[in-house]
Each structure stands twice: as structure tokens, then as C-alpha cells.
Amino acid sequence: MILKVKKMDPEAVLPKYAHSFDAGMDIFALENVTINPGQSVGIKTGLSFEVPEGYVGLVWDKSGLSIKHGLKILGGVLDSGYRGELIVGMINLGKEPYVFEKGHKLTQLLIQPIVITEIKEVEDLSETERGQGGLGSTGK
Question: Within 13 Å, how many C-alpha atoms sit on residue 129's CB side?
């Protein structure tokens, strides 16, 4: 598969896989941004993508940033018909400000196949063992 990527800014960094069998490619910040605790921001990448039809780009946390610094991605679906800049929404759930410098790893992008489903309204759903049990219904 080929993923077409357009640099919307000459200083943007093209996505890269850190290792040959990684699921996600690293996406890099185009700008210097400080995210204070509790603050959410949109961080520019300077890139736009042509995700092939039948696929979606999923924007995921970098585990080191989330575990060590409390940084969490907001949103994260890159549809195949979208051609605008990928701007990464992020919130700082940590206790300290975090500084992204231009060129730092920001997030990871996974390209996944999708299934288009037909929506059908019904009066009843089939019964299951679990039923409507949720929110801890299976215990600790």
C-alpha cells in the first residue's frame, strides 16, 4: 500500500516507522508548543494525507508520553476523504507543563482497513449471557 503525504510546510517532517515491524508511524510536531497541566491544544504537523479508500488513519498516543507525562490524544480519526492538515489534539493530564519542540515525536498514526456497515433499526436485539451488564458488572 502507498500512503500519499503532502508537506504543507517545507519544514514538516515526513512520518517514519521507528522499526520495520511497528504498527504505527511516528508523526512529528511542526511547532514549539507548551502544554500546561489541564490544558488541551491543537498541534500542527504541516502534513496532509491521502488515506486510501477503505482505510482510516488512527491517531494514537505515544506510550512513553502518556505514561511518563500524562499526555493524551484527543480525537484521532483521519478519514480517507479528508485532505486538510493533520492537527493533533492533545491534553496534558499530568502535573507538570510539557514542551514539544519542533521536530519532536508527537503521536503515532496507524492505517487500518474499515468495514462499511448498513444501519438497520430494530425493535429488539438478540439475547446474550452478558446482556446489559457493564461498568464493572464482571467484578474485579
Answer: 1
